[in-house]
Design goal:
Growth Hormone, Chain: A, mainly alpha, 0% strand, single chain, 266 residues
């Protein structure tokens, strides 16, 4: 937020998500190549993934440390932990916090549930059903890349609405369809739809309270624990009624995001 203007913040954050999605998408392939000795693994096998990402991370840290950024000076004293949490008392900030929880819950939930749906309905093996996770990340990566450009031309609220409708249609499809192709289409729609939710909510929260950007940023990141909350609920639901129960829990998160969209600024 110190190096891009407010109207381009969502687009810039989305491009950052695109880079992050590349890392998520490539991780299993780097691990696989290391395990099969297709790349020099120095005896580490699949664990070669860790030094590869470590080197990239160190390069990024050194590059960033050498970059000159003029940060805005904070006015007044730093907020305490309690004062940061107190910001959740602001209605819109609280809505953003819940939105981040839903986004991460859907993200983690799709990764764990998509293969199980294929195994439950089509009798696929875990090895074959695992492609569903890669498919999700392919479309999530593509969505982040396209979103970085779309958000420069389209209002965040409009694009957010399109993304939520994609996910809502996909959730309905996961309840109805039992054909592999249709299930794959639904997974792809969730990947594309969920790709731009985080940066839009994050930017909306920062722009809502620019004088408390650090504190708001911390609260939004804390919302990542939504992945844990959703997993517990999805586990209980799937144990009770099968994978359709897990889909129902994710659908609640999508419906909330639709409600959140109605509260966003135009």
């Amino acid at each position: 937020s110190n190096i891009v203007s407010g109207e381009r913040l969502a687009s810039s954050l989305t491009f950052g998500q695109f880079v992050k999605a590349i890392a998520s998408f490539l991780a299993p392939y780097i691990a696989m190549w290391g395990a099969t000795q297709a790349i020099p693994s120095l005896g580490m096998g699949w664990r070669v993934l860790f030094p590869v990402y470590m080197v990239i991370a160190v390069i990024a840290i050194l590059w960033l440390s050498g970059t000159s950024i003029r940060e805005e000076k904070e006015e007044g004293r730093p907020s305490t932990f309690g004062e940061c949490l107190a910001l959740l008392g602001k209605p819109f900030i609280f809505l953003c916090f819940l939105g981040i929880m839903c986004h991460v819950g859907i993200d983690v939930g799709t990764n764990t549930t998509a293969p199980k749906i294929l195994m439950e309905r089509l009798g696929m093996t875990l090895a074959d059903a695992g492609f569903a996770t890669s498919l999700y990340f392919i479309f999530r990566t593509a969505g982040c890349f396209l979103g970085a450009f779309i958000l420069q031309k389209m209002a965040p609220r409009t694009f957010f609405g399109i993304s939520v409708l994609c996910m809502l249609a996909a959730m309905v499809g996961l309840f109805v369809f039992h054909e592999k192709t249709m299930i794959y289409i639904c997974i792809a729609l969730i990947g594309f739809g969920n790709s731009n939710i985080f940066p839009v909510i994050f930017s909306q929260a920062l722009l809502a309270m620019p004088q408390k950007k650090n504190e708001v940023s911390g609260l939004m990141i804390m919302g990542l624990f939504g992945g844990t909350v959703f997993q517990i609920a999805m586990g209980l639901a799937s144990d009770a009624v099968g994978q359709s129960g897990a889909v129902a829990v994710m659908t609640v998160g999508v419906v909330y995001l639709f409600f959140y969209m109605l509260r966003m600024k135009r």
